[in-house]
Amino acid sequence: MLELKRSDSYNDDFQNLIVELDRGLSGQYENHATTYAPHNLVGYLETVVIAYEKGEAVGCGCFKKYDNNSVEIKRMFVRPELRKKGIASAILLELENWAKERGIKNAVLETGTKQTEAIALYEKKGYKRTENYGPYVGVETSLCFKKAII
Description:
By secondary structure, the protein is of the alpha+beta class. The protein is 31% helix and 33% strand. The chain has helices spanning 12-28, 32-36, 87-101, 116-124, and strands at residues 2-7, 48-53, 56-67, 70-78, 106-112, 128-130, 142-148. A seven-stranded mixed β-sheet has the order 1-2-3-4-5-7-6, with helices on both faces. The two termini are 28 Å apart.
């Protein structure tokens, strides 16, 4: 049974999961360290969701303030062997609900062009492609999305 826990970015399970995430991304994108890694640093965030299955951390995601009405979804990850079970959808929904509780109206996010499972998830969940924003402007391997979550 899947259990979702709200936590912060200092949580050891979250830290371990994002190490796995970064390892996978580095294997897919040769420019990961220089192009993406600097923007994936989350610092301290109190808005982390961790998914547990049978007591084991299997996925995560978080959000941070983007502007007065929006959050940016970051560090979405589910262990590869557990994908296609609805875990990422559950994490994303929990993040959106948490943002709504805080009065947020929109969510934005960035994913890589090679993250076909992520792209399919975001489109299925109502995210629409938008122009690349902030540090992703001009990055050919980045796709940006936006969704009204109100």
